[in-house]
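Standup notes
- DV: blocked on the single-chain target, sequence here:
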Amino acid sequence: MRHLSDLPDDEAREALRACCASTKWVERMLSQRPFKSADEILASAERLWLDLQPSDWLEAFAAHPRIGGQTGRRADGPTGHGPRGDAWSKSEQASVDSASDDVKARLTQANHDYESMFGWTYIVCATGKSAEEMLALARARMNNPPDTELQLAAAEQAKITRLRLQKMLEAHS
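- DV (later): unblocked, structure below
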């Protein structure tokens, strides 16, 4: 907690961007410093995320590599999380590495279908989920109306952000 509060703005901005790539969220988190506790950081992160506009959520979604895709770059450009965020994405999606080629191919197709349907990257908190579970969730979520799906994707991003903030805090405690 002290680490995040004491970092120079540029370093804190980079650390927060690894957790969530919404520019407004990062800037609003910076404006909340200094934080008094880890609980305050996590509560602020969630409150500020929920106060954002859908366009801010979409900015954060766009920074994610596709499930099963390479970190560090998306097919249409670099991710927006930086090296730390890319390492976290790789770790979070590690179950895809051991999936069968068939499941990987179906995940690639599901990513494409999802993006074609909704216009944003499929966002799921991958931690603890198998590739098969993420594939099933993607297929099921494609039955949602866009407004419902946007809310679900935002909730998944909130989970990802919380986990990443916790990792960052644990690394510096």
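- Follow-up: The CA atoms of residues 1 and 170 lie 9 Å apart.
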